[in-house]
Every structure is written in C-alpha cells, then in structure tokens.
Design brief:
150 residues; Rossmann fold; 5 helices; 5 strands; binds ligand CA2
Length: 150
Amino acid sequence: MMNKMKIYIINGPNLNLLGLREPEIYGHRTYEDLISYLLKEAEALGAELMCFQSNHEGKLIDIIQEAGENAEGIVINPAAYTHTSIAIYDALKAVNLPAVEVHLTDPSKREPFRKVSYVKDACVLSVLGRGFQGYKDAVKYLVENYGCQS
Ligand code: CA2
C-alpha cells in the first residue's frame, strides 16, 4: 500500500482574491474553490495536502520552514514575490524538499517585469499557465517522482 505524500500548498499575495477581482486574467473560481478542488483530487493522487495563503513575505518564509519539519514536498505559487524575493528562494533552498513552482497564468507572456523568476532555480519544476489544473499537475509530479512506496 502507498503511503500518502505530505505536501504543503503555499499561495502568495493577492491569491485570496481569486474569483473576486480580475476574472478576465484569473478566472471566476475563488481561492476556496481552488482548495476544495485540490483536496478532492488529493485522495486519488495519493497525497495529503496542507494548504496556506499569505500576503506577507515573512509569513510565507515561516510556512516554508514549517514545511521543512512537517512535509515531504512543496507546491508554491509565490505570486508577485516570484519576481522579487531572494528570501523565498533562500528558504526553499534551505529546507531541501522538492518544490514545484506553479503559476495560474504564464508570466513570460505578460508584462516584462514578470519574466524573471527568482524561485525557479530552487524548484524541481515550474508549471505555467494551466490554471487550477497546474496545481494538480504539480502534486502528481511530486508524488510520482518523490513519493515513497511501502
Ligand atoms: O499567474 C500566477 O499565478 C501569478 O503568480 C499571479 C500573481 C502574479 O504577480 C504573477 O506574476 C503570476 C498575481 C496574483 C494576484 O492574484 C489575484 C487574483 C485575483 C484577483 C487579483 C489578483
């Protein structure tokens, strides 16, 4: 029987506004819809998910460090901090867990300031522009490549 892989799902600033603002960019489904969707998919994927969202860089770093103690993998959408935060890059490197970077949109197809991802090099994979499905794909990737069997 497969042990479930413990994965932290971490979302950064403004993603709590999903479905409430800018639906033309981020769609009509809410943050709560995202979490329900992932928790529903988790069982079949063989994952145990713990979901977090914060608008604060330091809080996101605390959560990444906590993942280092409690989890076996990380799925992170650092939102705008993707393009600015060496501190989040350092935290991901420090915990030494497989992490997947997820973006609802493809930032490289948007404004030029979104072209750089500081977190990319601390991640084993980047999933871009697949909406909610991207988070599911990230969890699946972690379970298939880093989940342990027993
Ligand atoms: O495409 C993504 O997932 C992003 O990480 C979203 C970030 C953006 O800064 C990145 O470049 C790409 C922005 C998240 C803002 O989320 C909102 C959701 C609904 C309404 C307003 C903002």
